[in-house]
Amino acid sequence: MSQIGALTVAHLSSRRRSLLSWGLPLGLMSGFVVAIYPSIEAALSKAVQSYPSGLKEAFGIGQLSSVEQYLQAEMLSLIVPLSVGYLAVRAVASGLSGAAEEGRLDVLLSAPLARWRLVAAGFAATAVELAAVLALAAVLTMLGSVIGGAGLSAGRAAAGFAEVWPLALLFAGLGVIASGFSLRTAVVTGSVAGVLVAMYVIDLIGKLDPSVSGVRYASVFKYYGKAIDNGIDPLAFVGITAVATALAALGALLFERRDLPA
Amino acid sequence: MAVIETERLTKSYGQARGIEDVTFAVGAGEVFGFLGPNGAGKTTTIRTLLDLLHPTRGSARLFGLDSHRDSVAIRARLGNLPGDFGYGKDTTGREAIALLARLRGVSGRGRTESLAERFRADLDRPLGQLSRGNRQKVGLILAVFHEPELLILDEPTGGLDPLMQEEFLALVLEERQRGAAVFFSSHELDEVERVCDRVGIVRDGRLIAVERIAELRGNARRKVVVELDDPAGLPALGEIPGAADLELSGARASLSFAGELHPLLAALAGRRVLDLEVTRPTLEELFLTYYRGDAGGDAA
Q1: DSSP string covering B14-73
Q2: A223 located within any domain
Q3: pTM of the model
Q4: Which residues on chain A are in Cβ contact (under 8 Å) with B73?
Q5: Which of B81, B102, B138 to mutate to test the interface with A (most CBs of A within 10 A)?
Q6: What domains are defined for chain B?
């Protein structure tokens, strides 16, 4: 096994609990949301009609005339992307700043291991971890649909959850860059989580006020949120993934050059 | 060829001091002690050798290779025990060793089991559940299991009980016999005295002396106390070349003396010596002498 492969497996092993601690609650919550949809569908339609159109547009509420739209509004427009985005930063930070704080970095870098390989393995493991968490959440959501008889489309639900993956990975890339400047986990996660929330708010403002809609280009959320209705946009999916990888590569360069004090 | 060779190695942290103009060499099969109190610059020197810190100026070469440019090739040939060994709370020693073996391309786990038995190390419990001393044993195994050519150990006996400290010192001597060079920092003078061939003393980021243990003691001033039946001859002892700090108390004189004892004994010849005591300073006293600034100069 290559060094990157061995490190990726070790990183995933150390993060194995996150599948349950993040995937399970997100999946159960989504499953519950989907399961109760048939019983509230009629009342919901009436309520939504009274919502301001700007609010509906901002939060992707639309007509809420289908369980997919309800899932998008309740989970995939806010809770899942912000949660999994934050998880991405935590995961990547645990392999760099967290490893430095635990002393693991000193031990690993006693071996004939280039720093960029360490970063690459951390980023790859984060990508796998995010995919696993989202997959578990999607499966539990489908389970909720089956139990509640909601009739959720498996393909559309899968597209909705899959769309979160490149978005979250972008914040993992930013986490690698932050680790190039600081090896304190609190600083890395705090700063990138701040960017995550800021991007969400910027996108929200752009949606609420058409006169400043241009600000949405400063946020990755501009390219997020339509997969459950329209399927995955391959350009956005690949583009965001490519940007995330480029950010991680830049972060690896910064990490390669920085001092690692005791 | 020297295994470690530094030339005016300097690392500064902005305004804060790190190390400055540190120059020394360590040969193959040599045990080199790096002495100094906390904050003197020992760990900074080690981290610079390992390319965890990049030198501000000067150079470090290990196995003739540049410590920064060739760091991956260098690290393939060394073992390192960090000062406060940690790895991760949930990982067991065996898992950590397995990963390091893969990263090093070592087939099997070398002499892991025999070392674990020797140091009574528990490799199957998560490191977070082990005491500092027991974690340190795992760190020691991680540093030596692959039989490196160079061992870099940063205050390696911290947390080890006296029995394990003895075992550790025996291991260091065995590593030397195997041909490995050992560079270890410490503020435990006793262990340095017992296993090191040479010692470097670092003070305020500067290497102020590099000497063989034997020479360090040989060059040091001995404390001499002499008692004669007739005190009249005592003041003349202060004029002997090498004598200093003469203090008289009745028929007793105490003084410090450097160099061969022959001039002193010649001066005492023909007198009735009631008592004569010559004491070499302990390494600790020597160390404190350097630290008080009574001795100094640049390192050899």
Answers
A1: TTEEEEEEEEEEE-TT-EEEEE--TTSSHHHHHHHHTTSS--SEEEEEETTEETTTTHHH
A2: yes
A3: 0.86
A4: 112
A5: B102
A6: 4-216 (3.40.50.300), 221-279 (3.30.70.260)
